[in-house]
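User: My instructor asked us to take a sequence, write out its structure as tokens, and then describe one feature of it. I'm not sure where to start. Here is the sequence I was given:
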Amino acid sequence: MQLIGHTMATPGRTAKESVFLFAELGFAGTELVCREGMALPPDTPLAEARDIADFARACHCPILTITPYAWEINSADPEVAETHAQLLRRACDLAATMGARFVRAYGGKEAPVSDEADAWTRTVAALRAVAPYAAKRDLTILVENHPGTMTRSGAATRRLLDEVAQPNVRGLYDPANVLDDTNEPWETTLAVQEGTIAYVHVKDFAITEDERRACCVGDGIVPWAQILPHLRDTGFTGCLSFEYEKMWHPTQLPEPEVGLRRSADFVRRILGSATGDRSR
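Assistant: Let's start with the prediction itself. The structure tokens for your sequence are:
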């Protein structure tokens, strides 16, 4: 498995500053948030994106994943749906330019019960439409378990992937999201998604006085000590991306120089030499 850094951990820093930190921490690659106000806005010129990618490769911490926020690919409004489809395609263009392998996608925005069936159908169609665009660029689309989407649970994500039925549309397993947002046990999430998981987001949270608080991996309620060996033993060899939520919870987490190191060290202790990072 490869341990990689995620720029959700580094708000306010440039892409190059983030990459440099990740390299210093021994990570093997980088996931870049593609969002206005972050280090890689969607309208980043391709020449600038190429320069960032060259820097990352020189740091031995290449750009592996581009993460846009294309929520409404399943909107009932065709113009809104197309705007978000364009955002996803733009992320594919940036990813291809930067030599990345993955583009994160949402499984469509969660819909009211009255529109749920149609919204599901539109989500399947939207992902089928972007799949060949990504495939021509040697990219895998990663559908994440995520609150506020049609794929909040492992069961829903597996169903969507089966219906999209494209070899380059795979699952992004985020156990913290599922445990926080649904009643689905982690064992069920893993079992139902087995064979579809291409990528994992690693983060943790604690519950204190009925409040969710972001924390370093290993300090919270996500059972990583059970999840990670299970992933390893069932043949997962992909990326473990540390989605350290400093962007959303700046006062709850230590600076990434401290918190990312602690989180990565926890994972390394569990997996030992099974991690393909550069910390040794």
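For the description part of your assignment, you could build on this observation: The longest strand covers residues 63-68. Try explaining in your own words what that tells you about the chain.
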